[in-house]
Write a structure and sequence with these properties.
- GO terms for molecular function: UDP-glucose 6-dehydrogenase activity.
- 43% of the residues lie in helices and 14% in strands.
- The protein has an 8-stranded mixed beta sheet, with helices on both faces. Strands 11-10-9-12-13-14 form a 6-stranded parallel beta sheet.
- Helix 1 crosses helix 3 and helix 12 crosses helix 13.
- The relative contact order is 0.09.
- Helix 5 links the parallel strand 5 and strand 6.
- By secondary structure, it is of the alpha/beta class.
- The structure holds nicotinamide-adenine-dinucleotide (NAD) and uridine-5'-diphosphate-glucose.
- Nicotinamide-adenine-dinucleotide binds next to helix 1 and helix 4.
Length: 431
């Protein structure tokens, strides 16, 4: 099949490379010329394990990129993988999706056959039908269901394991209103359907809601284990032993029970806030989801409080290990390192930081130029009165004697990754 992908960020690039690997011809449209140039040179614009290999194999062959929407004229299916950031009140800002739909609509009439437009972005129920569809119709002069198909196919990949997640998903969700659009999605994902991946065939609004429900459930699950963990800490109980035990109950499940400094990233914070805003807009107050956000917002503060119990950091050098919102990514959007660094700077600390990913480091340097960024853990720890571990990069699990370089001995671990040992004043966030 010939597939167009509009937007080449974390989702668009991964989906493009993986669909090319399925054997499709893929063309990626992005407004950012440097992203397009990188893709055409076979380089990934983002850090994602496995992506370089796929781009190496397919870029310039079955995968190429352009800034020109007119190049979509020959495709069968077009995915919109555009950002849906949060407004100040938490609701989603659909401006970029609307702009992309407008540009796509202008070329849609030139596409032969019955093209299917698929919304891949995370959007609140009704957006595909009430916002994207009408823009496409207005700009193209065509009719949904008669001249072109409209679908929603939310994406569940996680950053840091995006390629693996896309290639081996727990499920596929196809939201459609007509059979031809559904058939188009089935053809796109044929290799996964052959592998018996469960497929949820549903309506547009249901598909949109499934995505929010999925993220809200996972985020709330982490907030619940964080709340339980905070109680555990008060009673000197190890929350990880408790989590392992409750995870054995099949109704609970062991995944996403790692308590600590909380959830960050480009999705959970934005999507839970969007669902809360969407509910309130209809007059429903989602108290539990708001509580999940509140618990999450408090975890970095708890981490700083634990530090305060041991050191007055004013004028002291303090080491932050981990800047990306999770390991194996360069993404710092809503990273827990942000409120941690803010808190340290407010206390007058001299902050030094290290992340194994250079992209994450550079993004943080832009945000916090007053922080000193070092190239490895040892010089970061050296001479610091305390260390705060914010991201669970595997290399932090190997740190041991490096902590002896601290001028003090305090380690506050927000991710349960450092080995507790003699000679360290070790504080786990929930253990
Ligand atoms: N990041 C994730 O892990 C993830 C996972 C599942 C779903 N989602 C959802 O997918 C959507 C995309 O997220 P993302 O993280 O990939 O975004 P992103 O910010 O990484 O990438 C968006 C890309 O779109 C490009 N763009 C902006 N305006 C454009 C336009 N008018 N035409 C063409 N390209 C344009 C940007 O240059 C950028 O490269 C969001 O709705 C997000 O919630 C994200
Ligand atoms: O037990 C856990 C698991 C995760 N986290 C944190 O939760 C955040 C999100 O992690 P993760 O879900 O692994 O990464 P994301 O890339 O944000 O993926 C989430 O958001 C994506 C965008 O919507 C969805 O597609 C994915 O299914 C969903 O897992 C990170 O800060 C993690 O440190 C914890 O604190 N404890």
């Amino acid at each position: 099949m010939k597939i167009g992908i509009v937007g080449s960020g974390y989702v668009g690039t991964t989906v493009a490379a993986c669909l090319a690997d399925f054997g499709h011809d893929v063309i990626n449209v992005d407004v950012d010329e440097s992203v397009v140039r990188q893709l055409n040179d076979g380089e990934s614009p983002i850090t994602e394990p496995g992506l370089d290999g796929l781009l190496d194999r397919h870029a310039g062959e079955s995968l190429w990129a352009t800034t020109d929407y007119d190049d979509l004229a020959n495709v069968d299916v077009i995915f919109l993988a555009l950002p849906t950031p949060a407004n100040d009140d938490g609701s989603i800002d659909t401006a970029v999706v609307e702009a992309g739909a407008g540009s796509l609509g202008a070329v849609l009439a030139d596409v032969e056959g019955y093209p299917t437009v698929v919304v891949k972005s995370t959007v609140v129920p009704g957006t595909t039908e009430d916002v994207v569809g009408p823009i496409l119709e207005r700009e193209s002069g065509l009719r949904v269901g008669t001249d072109f198909g409209l679908a929603t196919n939310p994406e569940f990949l996680r950053e840091g394991s995006a390629v693996e997640d896309f290639q081996h998903p727990d499920k596929l969700v196809f939201g459609t209103t007509d059979d031809r659009a559904l058939e188009a999605l089935e053809a796109v994902y044929a290799p996964l359907l052959d592998d018996d991946v469960p497929v949820v065939r549903t309506g547009l609004r249901e598909a949109e809601m499934i995505k929010y429900a999925n993220n809200a459930f996972l985020a709330a699950k982490i907030s619940l284990i964080n709340e339980l963990g905070n109680i555990c800490k008060e009673y000197d109980v190890d929350a990880y032993e408790v989590a392992d035990a409750i995870g054995l109950d099949a109704r609970i499940g062991g995944a996403f029970l790692r308590s600590g400094v909380g959830w960050g990233g480009s999705c959970f914070p934005k999507d839970v806030a969007a669902l809360v805003a969407a509910a309130r807009e209809r007059g429903y107050d989602p108290e539990l989801l708001q509580a999940a956000i509140d618990v999450n917002d408090r975890q970095p503060q708890r981490m700083l409080d634990l530090l305060d119990r041991h050191v007055d950091v004013e004028g002291e050098r303090v080491a932050v290990l981990g800047l990306a919102f999770k390991p194996h990514t360069d993404d710092v959007r809503n990273s827990r390192a942000i409120p941690i660094i803010e808190g340290l700077l407010e206390r007058g600390a001299d902050v030094v930081a290290y992340d194994p990913n250079r992209g994450a480091t550079e993004a943080m340097r832009e945000r916090f130029p007053e922080v000193e960024y070092l190239a490895s853990a040892s010089p970061t720890l050296s001479g610091a009165s305390a260390a705060l571990v914010v991201t669970d990069w595997p290399e932090f699990a190997d740190l041991d004697l490096e902590f002896d370089l601290l001028s003090g001995d305090v380690v506050v671990d927000g991710r349960r990754i450092v080995e507790r040992r003699e000679g360290l004043t070790y504080e786990g966030l929930t253990w």
